Amino acid sequence: MSNQAPQSSSRRQFVGLAAAALAAGSLSRFAFADANPAIGETAQPTNGDNTAIRPFRVHFPEAQLIDMRRRIKATRWPDRETVPDESQGIQLATIQGLARYWATGYDWRKCEARLNSYPQFVTEIDGLDIHFIHLRSKHENAMPLIVTHGWPGSIIEQFKIVDPLVNPTAHGAPASDAFHLVIPSLPGYGFSAKPTTTGWGPERTARAWVVLMKRLGYDRFASQGGDLGGIVTNIMAKQAPPELIGIHVNFPAAVPADILKSIVAGDPTPAGLSDDEKHAYEQLSANFKKKRGYALEMGTRPQTLYGLADSPVGLACWLLDHGDGYGQPAAALSAAVLGHPVNGHSAGALTRDDVLDDITLYWLTNTGISAARFYWESHSNFFLAADVNVPAAVSAFPGENYQAPKSWTEHAYHNLIYFNRPETGGHFAAWEEPMIFANEVRAGLRPLRT
């Protein structure tokens, strides 16, 4: 770290965090160094103990932003699609419009400042540096909660739920609903290190999260997740560490084995299903027939996706398209990029800058392929009934891959303490409907507070 760097407010905050940690006795004297000068600054203890909790600050050199914009402007474009809709993928006019704004109007530094407004840290777990945000509530008896993002998301997905969960009284909720929040970056995502050997899938990650929470001093905590974060949370619940008091998921694994077998086989809707079950079956059937291409590629051949590391626009298209076009669950992303509802679906609170913040994080950290490998490392079906005994709360949003029926959910989660089907919100619920999402987390985990 250069001695000539200006003493900005964010730098003073960073040094203050280090001093606070030192005063708390968690670290010895610090030597500040650029662990990776292309990403940011990490405070390292002089004794070389990388398992210590080390404050972290994001800063990308301007040269990287200049290079990104140059690459966007130099994109070699394909021909226009031969259909009048999005059925062949991200439409040329859509991505060209986004690229123009990305290269000339978008400001990454605003996102960087937002990241640096939160206390960020790095600690080594099982040989891998894990990055996380850690916010303690001012309210007594706040519940420790670890929240895990998914793909194509990142910790940026959680920005809008941080204050409502940590500081509930400022948002119309009682102090008794407060949480201490830990928001880690998955291995190979964001500012966490990229695994250099195999084995870093949901199972190992779930065990690492328990180590992380215990290292932070939490001997009792809850876990929350959506998308891949929901998979990690479900697996943590199956592992049932004694420290885990319960979970909340907004991407439930609730599909009965026989139903899933019929869906995979492409069978018509079975007789005897309730209306909610029929709706879920139809959603899943459409998903498996034409919306799983990205997951199949990442789950089998992630290393082939070299374009994700070479082209910002190629990366953006891959992260935006789930085979859904203007349908759920990707509709909110499309609506945010276009600036208007698509196919009747609103972006909610999700904005074009939110989407570009997330994509830009993937680009600057060069994690397109390392993030994709998490699918290759996942060996369980994301939809099959979880078979969980730990107390569980489930929020089934209507714009999810499927809106889980209660009948399926209560057979998958044997100690179901809360179930609700919100009227709005989708796969990116924390982004799309942050207040509804925060209310669901509060209500879902409230029974555990007694």
TrEMBL record:
GO terms for molecular function: epoxide hydrolase activity. InterPro entries: AB_hydrolase_fold, Epox_hydrolase-like, Epoxide_hydro_N, Epoxide_hydrolase, TAT_signal. Residues 1-33 form the signal peptide. Residues 53-157 form the Epoxide hydrolase N-terminal domain. The active site is at residues 227, 375, 427. GO terms for biological process: epoxide metabolic process. Keywords: Aromatic hydrocarbons catabolism, Hydrolase, Signal. Gene3D superfamilies: alpha/beta hydrolase (3.40.50.1820). Coiled coil: none annotated. PROSITE patterns: TAT (PS51318). Belongs to the peptidase S33 family. This is Pimeloyl-ACP methyl ester carboxylesterase.
